[in-house]
Amino acid sequence: MSRKIRKADREIAAAEAAAAAPPPPPSGPEPVEVSAERSAVFTVEAAEAGGRMDKILAARIPELSRTRLKALIVEGGVLVNGKPVDDPGRKLALDDAVALQVPEAAPPEPEPENIPLDVVFEDEHLLVIEKPAGLVVHPAAGHESGTLVNALIAHCGESLSGIGGVKRPGIVHRLDKDTTGLLVVAKNDKAHKGLAAQFADHGRTGPLERAYRAVVWGVPLIRQGTIAAALDRSTKHRDRMAVVSHERGKEAITHYQVEEVFNDAAGAPIASLVTCRLETGRTHQIRVHMAHLGHPLIGDATYATGFRTKAVKLGEAARRAVESFPRQALHAAVLGFEHPSTGEETFFESDLPQDMVDLIDALRVR
């Protein structure tokens, strides 16, 4: 595992250009931070007069999401000229005195559980972990406890300042239960808002980067390519995703590159190690896209059921390794993003877990 803080050349060029440029025009009223006493106070300026209260609050207090601010308004947490106002659409006038009180975060739900975590990086705003196989990220039907969220609540303790008013970790992306690798989690509203925006943008205008390594059946004819195929819930199997028409599904784009080819006992190509980089992040995206390409992941009990018999073509050691591999061979190996508080471009890399190393070693032997 390694961690790097990128000092991009484009930042230096941007700074030089900014120094040579004329000063920008005034950018409007200054943002207001929520104080240690969990309050924020400001006076409406001329540029804001006549605007909706929720929009003015969102601009002035960027560390809280608009949804969270609206909830605080409705709950009576905002005073205008000393009187509570519970209408988010209330128009504010010049020199109105606005006071926001953010209540203490409610106790966490679900319950904290002492589950060991492999923490790669942690500060007061976020943490990056290595998720092991078999760990469900979020409580759901059938997995009400024993999840990553239970573990994070126990690990973070009082360092969770509250997401949406509740002391809970902010999950901005997920990994399937049996997928291993890097995952970032927010500790407070500001970090959650900043990370969520980057994941919603899919890295198209920012530094977000996600790459996975997978062992798949067969070898793609085009060794480096892009799969652009919309995804939606399968109409036949509600626990699966499926490639659908663009009108019905959500845009999904995966870039892949073949890294290594493995041969069967007769010397014919039978499997490959592939790196997949996400341009979007849909449920089961890599698993479905690679299956759609005709190269499902080894060990994928959902999308590779028709490929199980291929193992008979392998040498004895490789066949045993494939038949006993207990999960989809998928690992989140690269995660890069802009730190939502410091603005630094942060980059993490993760080595393959031992079970995938053993699988690849076995496939290399004919």
The portion of residues forming beta strands comes to 25-35%
> In total, how many domains does the architecture comprise?
3
Number of helical runs?
A: 8
N-to-C CA distance: 30 Å
Q: How does this model look, in words?
A:
The structure is a single chain. The protein has about 375 residues and is α+β, with helices and mostly antiparallel strands. It has helices spanning about 10-20, 55-60, 65-75, 150-155, 190-200, 285-290, 315-325, 355-365; strands spanning about 1-5, 40-45, 80, 85, 95-100, 120, 125-130, 170, 180-185, 210-215, 225-230, 230-235, 240-245, 255-265, 270-280, 330-340, 345-350. The chain has eight helices and 17 strands. β12 and β13 (about 240-245) form a beta hairpin. α2 packs across α3 (about 65-75) and α7 packs antiparallel against α8. The longest helix is centred in the middle third of the chain and has 13 residues, at about 190-200. The chain is elongated and about 80 Å long. Residues about 1-10 and about 20-25 have low confidence and may be disordered.
